[in-house]
Each structure stands twice: as structure tokens, then as C-alpha cells.
Write a structure and sequence with these properties.
12 helices
């Protein structure tokens, strides 16, 4: 049996749960679907998500206190009964009705694998002009996220958006619950999987990201992720390219220049990144400069 585990926060997860419940019923796939709300503050989301309990194979639970992105995934795993745990982000949607069937086939085809990653794609067109930053960034990276490309660097390509893992493997690693805020918990998890010797197989079975944030929200989330990286850099080692670049610049004495340039040009960079035509090189420098200031 597959346990499908979906954490949610201020998002309506019902469409995803309904799609998966229908697929399981139509294709006779043994599974359970557990959706856990991490103390959402939007009542309309909780009200609509309560309908999940009426779906076949589905359970919806609400937490009274927010416990964070890592802890809620561990909680879901503790409640699961299946041999395989399929973790999905609540804002993803299958492209067709064969999503669960492909994962079932992958279990049979990749008997050596402990983790199977399905991947992520994004809409063909930007949903709105003020969502251009996240959209441009993700679409530029999409060509590197095919199963073939991801299998070249299986651990570095790990993302929590859409992956399946053997229950016994997950219980040996789990998510680090000191990661309470947005960012890099998936990088550390992939790093730990590699260190534990668990094997990853990447397949083409993506979910489509249905929640492209506005430029302003995505920039704030990026800053939050960089604060997470600064807090936990000692655990991540050189597995994060940005931190590796930071250390190189530190060794050759260029960080003071980076910090000064960032302080001078931050308003200009922000105006560009919040515009309808954001520059990815500007975004890369913004992240480096912001991180350099955090680590000062």
C-alpha cells in the first residue's frame, strides 16, 4: 500500500486529494491519503479542506499549533501505514489520471531504489505579469529537471515537491525539525540520503505547480530561504552552490566588495525583480549579496 502524504498551509488541497482519490478508485490502487493542515490562518482554506474527509481513502487533520515544514512531514509519516510514502506538495496537480499508476510501475521497475522522484513542471505561460520572477526562474531551470538530467546528479536534484520513499528508509533519516522556516530542508534531506547510502531513481511523472507566487511574495520567500541557509549552513556543507560560492569569495577576500555593491544597488535590483521583466543575473546577484550581508 502507498501512503500519500500532503502537508498544507493556507492552501486548498481538496482538488489534489480528489484527483488522487479518484485515480486510486478507478485503477484499484491500494492507498491511503492523509492531508495535514499546519494551523492555517485562512478559515476558507480549512473549511474547504474539511471536505477531504468525505473522499474515499482520505483523512484530513488540522493542527492547532504550527509546527513547521519539516515537523509536519515527520508527523504525516508517523501516521502512515503504507510500505511506501508518497509526499506531495499541496499546490501540485497531476497532468493526467495515470499519475499514481506510473508510481506503481516505478516501484516494480526500480526494485533497487529506496526513493523515487517524479519531478515538477510549471504552466506553459506566466499566469500573470506580476508573477514573472518565479515563473522565469523556474522555466529557465526546467530543462535541467528531466528525469535524464536529474539521474545524472540524483541527490543534488532531490526536491520534496513530489517524491516517494520506502517507509523504513524515511524513518532512518526523517526531516530535520530544526528547519522550521522556508527553504533548504529538501537539500539537507537529499544530503542525508546520500550519506546513508539510500538509492534514488528519478522518473518523468511530474506534478504541475499551481501556485506561482507574485514577484513580491517570491522575493520575500527567497530572503527567508537565505536566512534559513545562513542559520543551517554548517549542516549543509558545500551541497548548496550559493554557500560554496560565498566561501570561495571569502577565501580570496572579495566579500567586502560584494556587500558594498549589494548595499549600493539593492534598490535598483529590487525594482527590476519586482517588474514584469526580471533579470535572472540580477536575481543571482541579489541572492549572493543578501546572503553575504547575513553572514557578515
Amino acid at each position: 500500500m502507498i501512503s500519500i502524504l500532503i502537508p498544507t498551509y493556507n492552501y486548498i488541497a481538496y482538488p489534489l486529494a480528489e484527483s488522487l482519490s479518484r485515480q486510486a478508485k478507478e485503477q484499484n490502487i491500494p492507498c491511503e491519503i492523509i492531508v495535514a493542515d499546519d494551523a492555517s490562518t485562512r478559515n476558507e482554506c480549512k473549511q474547504k479542506n474539511r471536505l477531504i474527509n468525505s473522499l474515499p481513502h482520505c483523512t484530513y487533520i488540522e493542527l492547532e499549533k504550527n509546527i513547521g515544514r519539516a515537523s509536519i512531514r515527520n508527523l504525516l509519516a508517523d501516521k502512515a501505514q503504507g510500505e511506501w510514502l508518497l509526499f506531495l506538495d499541496c499546490d501540485g496537480m497531476p497532468l493526467d489520471d495515470l499519475f499514481l499508476k506510473r508510481y506503481g510501475q516505478a516501484i516494480a521497475n526500480h526494485t533497487e531504489a529506496d526513493i523515487i522522484c517524479g519531478g515538477i513542471i510549471h504552466p506553459k505561460e506566466v499566469p500573470a505579469s506580476n508573477m514573472s520572477l518565479r515563473y522565469t526562474y523556474e522555466k529557465a531551470a526546467e530543462k535541467h529537471h528531466t528525469a535524464t538530467k536529474r539521474n545524472e546528479r540524483p541527490y543534488a536534484s532531490f526536491r520534496t515537491f513530489n517524491f516517494m520513499i520506502r517507509r523504513n528508509a524515511f524513518l532512518q533519516v526523517k526531516f530535520d525539525e530544526t528547519f522550521r522556516h522556508y527553504g533548504y530542508e529538501d537539500v539537507l534531506f537529499g544530503f542525508q540520503l546520500k550519506g546513508s547510502g539510500f538509492r534514488i531513481a528519478h522518473i518523468d511523472n511530474p506534478l504541475e505547480n499551481k501556485d506561482i507566487e507574485t514577484n513580491e511574495i517570491f522575493l520575500r520567500k527567497t530572503e527567508e530561504a537565505l536566512r534559513t541557509l545562513a542559520e543551517h549552513a554548517d549542516k549543509l556543507g558545500d551541497s548548496v552552490h550559493l554557500h560554496h560560492l560565498y566561501l570561495r569569495l571569502q577565501r580570496i577576500g572579495l566579500l567586502p566588495i560584494v556587500r558594498k555593491l549589494f548595499q549600493w544597488f539593492a534598490p535598483t535590483l529590487q525594482r527590476n525583480l519586482l517588474s514584469n521583466t526580471p533579470s535572472l543575473p540580477y536575481f543571482a546577484f541579489y541572492k549572493l549579496g543578501y546572503y553575504a550581508l547575513l553572514k557578515e
